[in-house]
Amino acid sequence: MSTSSLIGASFPVQNVAIVGTGLKSVERVTGRLTRRGFIAGGAMSGLWMGLFVGIAFALFSTHEQAGYLITTPLLGAIFGAIWALFSYRTATRHGARDFSSVTQVTATNYEVLVEHHCAADAHLILAGPVATPAMATFVWVEQVIARLMGRVVAARR
After folding, report:
1. pTM for the full predicted model
2. Could you give the CA distance from residue 96 to residue 5 in angstroms, rounded to a whole number?
3. Domain spans, the chain
4. pLDDT digits (tens, 9 = 90+) for 60-83
5. Which among 85, 110, 116, 156 is placed 20 to 30 Å from 145, CA to CA?
6. CA neighbor of 22 nearest in space, from 108, 112, 113, 110
7. Measuring CA to CA, how many Å separate 31 from each of 9, 22, 152?
Protein backbone atom coordinates (compact mmCIF):
# COMPACT_ATOMS: atom_id res chain seq x y z
CA MET A 1 0.00 0.00 0.00
CA SER A 2 2.76 2.46 0.87
CA THR A 3 4.51 2.47 -2.51
CA SER A 4 1.29 2.76 -4.47
CA SER A 5 0.15 5.59 -2.17
CA LEU A 6 3.36 7.48 -2.86
CA ILE A 7 3.03 6.96 -6.61
CA GLY A 8 -0.62 8.06 -6.55
CA ALA A 9 0.34 11.28 -4.75
CA SER A 10 2.92 12.21 -7.45
CA PHE A 11 5.82 11.57 -5.07
CA PRO A 12 9.25 11.55 -6.78
CA VAL A 13 9.65 7.78 -6.92
CA GLN A 14 13.30 8.00 -7.98
CA ASN A 15 13.97 8.68 -4.27
CA VAL A 16 12.34 5.41 -3.16
CA ALA A 17 14.12 2.08 -2.65
CA ILE A 18 12.45 -1.25 -1.92
CA VAL A 19 14.78 -3.49 0.08
CA GLY A 20 14.16 -7.21 0.55
CA THR A 21 15.55 -8.91 3.64
CA GLY A 22 15.60 -12.52 4.72
CA LEU A 23 16.52 -13.84 1.29
CA LYS A 24 15.84 -17.47 0.46
CA SER A 25 16.29 -19.56 -2.65
CA VAL A 26 13.23 -21.36 -4.03
CA GLU A 27 13.73 -24.08 -6.64
CA ARG A 28 10.66 -25.15 -8.57
CA VAL A 29 10.80 -28.47 -10.44
CA THR A 30 9.47 -28.01 -13.98
CA GLY A 31 9.84 -31.52 -15.39
CA ARG A 32 11.85 -34.69 -15.78
CA LEU A 33 14.93 -34.87 -17.99
CA THR A 34 14.76 -38.04 -20.05
CA ARG A 35 17.49 -39.21 -22.38
CA ARG A 36 15.00 -39.42 -25.27
CA GLY A 37 13.71 -35.88 -24.74
CA PHE A 38 17.22 -34.51 -24.36
CA ILE A 39 18.38 -36.14 -27.61
CA ALA A 40 15.22 -34.99 -29.44
CA GLY A 41 15.87 -31.42 -28.32
CA GLY A 42 19.47 -31.62 -29.51
CA ALA A 43 18.36 -33.04 -32.87
CA MET A 44 15.82 -30.24 -33.37
CA SER A 45 18.40 -27.61 -32.46
CA GLY A 46 20.87 -29.17 -34.91
CA LEU A 47 18.18 -29.36 -37.59
CA TRP A 48 17.49 -25.63 -37.36
CA MET A 49 21.18 -24.81 -37.40
CA GLY A 50 21.68 -27.09 -40.42
CA LEU A 51 18.75 -25.46 -42.20
CA PHE A 52 20.28 -22.04 -41.61
CA VAL A 53 23.64 -23.21 -42.99
CA GLY A 54 21.87 -24.88 -45.95
CA ILE A 55 20.02 -21.68 -46.82
CA ALA A 56 23.28 -19.72 -46.63
CA PHE A 57 25.00 -22.28 -48.92
CA ALA A 58 22.06 -22.28 -51.33
CA LEU A 59 22.03 -18.50 -51.60
CA PHE A 60 25.71 -18.24 -52.49
CA SER A 61 26.02 -21.38 -54.61
CA THR A 62 25.69 -21.56 -58.36
CA HIS A 63 24.48 -25.20 -58.49
CA GLU A 64 22.66 -27.88 -56.46
CA GLN A 65 20.67 -25.59 -54.14
CA ALA A 66 18.16 -28.35 -53.27
CA GLY A 67 20.96 -30.66 -52.18
CA TYR A 68 22.15 -28.17 -49.59
CA LEU A 69 18.63 -27.66 -48.27
CA ILE A 70 18.20 -31.41 -47.72
CA THR A 71 21.60 -32.60 -46.52
CA THR A 72 22.66 -29.82 -44.15
CA PRO A 73 19.54 -30.05 -41.92
CA LEU A 74 19.93 -33.85 -41.74
CA LEU A 75 23.62 -33.60 -40.88
CA GLY A 76 22.82 -30.87 -38.34
CA ALA A 77 20.15 -33.06 -36.69
CA ILE A 78 22.56 -36.00 -36.47
CA PHE A 79 25.31 -33.80 -35.03
CA GLY A 80 22.88 -32.20 -32.54
CA ALA A 81 21.62 -35.59 -31.36
CA ILE A 82 25.15 -36.92 -30.83
CA TRP A 83 26.17 -33.74 -29.01
CA ALA A 84 23.08 -33.96 -26.77
CA LEU A 85 23.84 -37.62 -26.01
CA PHE A 86 27.27 -36.67 -24.70
CA SER A 87 26.04 -33.65 -22.79
CA TYR A 88 23.14 -35.53 -21.15
CA ARG A 89 25.38 -37.07 -18.50
CA THR A 90 26.85 -33.67 -17.65
CA ALA A 91 23.44 -31.98 -17.49
CA THR A 92 22.03 -34.65 -15.17
CA ARG A 93 25.23 -34.78 -13.10
CA HIS A 94 25.85 -38.40 -14.08
CA GLY A 95 22.25 -39.41 -13.41
CA ALA A 96 21.96 -37.90 -9.92
CA ARG A 97 19.79 -34.96 -11.00
CA ASP A 98 17.40 -36.04 -13.73
CA PHE A 99 14.94 -33.16 -13.49
CA SER A 100 14.78 -29.59 -14.74
CA SER A 101 14.05 -26.73 -12.40
CA VAL A 102 13.85 -22.96 -12.12
CA THR A 103 15.56 -21.19 -9.22
CA GLN A 104 14.25 -17.92 -7.82
CA VAL A 105 15.51 -15.75 -4.96
CA THR A 106 12.71 -14.28 -2.84
CA ALA A 107 12.62 -12.12 0.28
CA THR A 108 10.58 -12.78 3.40
CA ASN A 109 10.30 -9.09 4.34
CA TYR A 110 10.32 -5.90 2.30
CA GLU A 111 11.08 -2.38 3.49
CA VAL A 112 10.29 0.83 1.63
CA LEU A 113 13.08 3.37 2.15
CA VAL A 114 12.97 7.04 1.17
CA GLU A 115 15.91 9.43 0.93
CA HIS A 116 16.25 11.80 3.85
CA HIS A 117 15.35 14.97 1.93
CA CYS A 118 11.97 13.47 0.95
CA ALA A 119 11.19 11.62 4.19
CA ALA A 120 8.88 14.27 5.62
CA ASP A 121 6.80 14.45 2.43
CA ALA A 122 6.54 10.67 2.33
CA HIS A 123 5.48 10.62 5.97
CA LEU A 124 2.75 13.19 5.28
CA ILE A 125 1.43 11.22 2.31
CA LEU A 126 1.42 7.92 4.19
CA ALA A 127 -0.11 9.42 7.34
CA GLY A 128 -3.17 10.47 5.38
CA PRO A 129 -5.43 13.32 6.43
CA VAL A 130 -4.45 14.89 9.75
CA ALA A 131 -7.15 14.66 12.44
CA THR A 132 -6.36 17.58 14.79
CA PRO A 133 -4.70 21.02 14.49
CA ALA A 134 -2.10 19.98 17.10
CA MET A 135 -1.16 16.98 14.98
CA ALA A 136 -0.93 19.21 11.90
CA THR A 137 1.48 21.52 13.74
CA PHE A 138 3.57 18.54 14.85
CA VAL A 139 3.76 17.16 11.33
CA TRP A 140 4.64 20.61 9.95
CA VAL A 141 7.47 21.05 12.51
CA GLU A 142 8.71 17.54 11.74
CA GLN A 143 8.73 18.39 8.03
CA VAL A 144 10.65 21.65 8.57
CA ILE A 145 13.26 19.89 10.74
CA ALA A 146 13.69 17.15 8.15
CA ARG A 147 14.18 19.70 5.37
CA LEU A 148 16.70 21.65 7.45
CA MET A 149 18.60 18.44 8.22
CA GLY A 150 18.58 17.63 4.53
CA ARG A 151 20.12 21.01 3.72
CA VAL A 152 22.80 20.56 6.40
CA VAL A 153 23.72 17.13 5.06
CA ALA A 154 23.69 18.42 1.48
CA ALA A 155 25.95 21.35 2.46
CA ARG A 156 28.53 18.96 3.96
CA ARG A 157 28.92 17.06 0.68
Report:
1. 0.47
2. 49
3. 2-27+104-156, 34-97
4. 887 777 888 889 999 999 999 999
5. 110
6. 108
7. 45, 28, 58
